[in-house]
Write a structure and sequence with these properties.
Blueprint lengths: L1 H17 L23 E4 L7 E4 L6 H40 L8 H7 L7 H11 L37 H16 L2 H11 L3
Helix pairs in contact: 4-6, 5-6
Length: 204
């Protein structure tokens, strides 16, 4: 009898809290003025266990399927959008650099004219052409592909070493050759020695 009384009290409390109307030998009145949140509950009564009243939610959500999977999909989409934006920005920078390189106004004349304007002796033209052609292919705005910071037809490292020879050292091959001439003579003693060193070490 005591178990039945406890069961009746449990059912009364459950009915008032979960908006489920039921009775087991005892009537219970719920306050109809209170509108609890709508929910779907399944009430099971099993008097053979220590917990005679069991409330379950048959439509309990699957956390992995309903929460984690959509969340991860949204995160992956956001990451893909960020990567695409970064790639687009990098492409824009590369395009800008290429455009700037093409738009450089080079002095009139040939490589020989540039060497002559830089004050290099004609007897050294062959040495100069050999080294410069392999250092940069005569690319006035060429930067080292390895990211060392070397720049210009002579691959000055850093590029600012050429600044004393002209404010236009970033775009003027004659200014760059003036630096290269001073570098070759200052470090190796002559262009011939610079050539000999380059053929052995493949750098200067």
């Amino acid at each position: 009898m005591r178990n039945i009384s406890q069961l009746a009290v449990s059912m009364m409390l459950l009915a008032t809290q979960a908006n489920v109307s039921t009775s087991v030998g005892t009537a219970a009145a719920a306050d109809t003025s209170v509108q609890p949140a709508q929910s779907v509950l399944e009430v099971r009564i099993n008097t053979n266990t220590g917990d005679p009243v069991q409330v379950t939610a048959p439509n309990k959500p699957n956390f992995d399927a309903d929460v984690l999977v959509p969340l991860r999909a949204a995160q992956a989409q956001a990451q893909a959008a960020r990567i695409a934006a970064q790639q687009a920005a990098a492409h824009k920078v590369r395009t800008t650099v290429r455009t700037a390189a093409v738009s450089v106004s080079l002095p009139a004349g040939s490589h020989v004219d540039w060497m002559r304007a830089a004050g290099i002796a004609e007897g050294d033209f062959g040495y100069v052409d050999y080294i410069i052609d392999r250092e940069s292919g005569w690319g006035v705005t060429k930067s080292n592909y390895g990211g060392s910071g070397a720049y210009g037809i002579g691959q000055a490292l850093p590029a600012s070493k050429m600044a004393p020879y002209g404010a236009d050292y970033m775009t003027n091959p004659v200014t760059q050759l003036k630096w290269a001439n001073a570098y070759a003579v200052g470090r190796f003693g002559s262009w011939a020695n610079a050539y000999s060193y380059w053929t052995t070490h493949h750098n200067w």
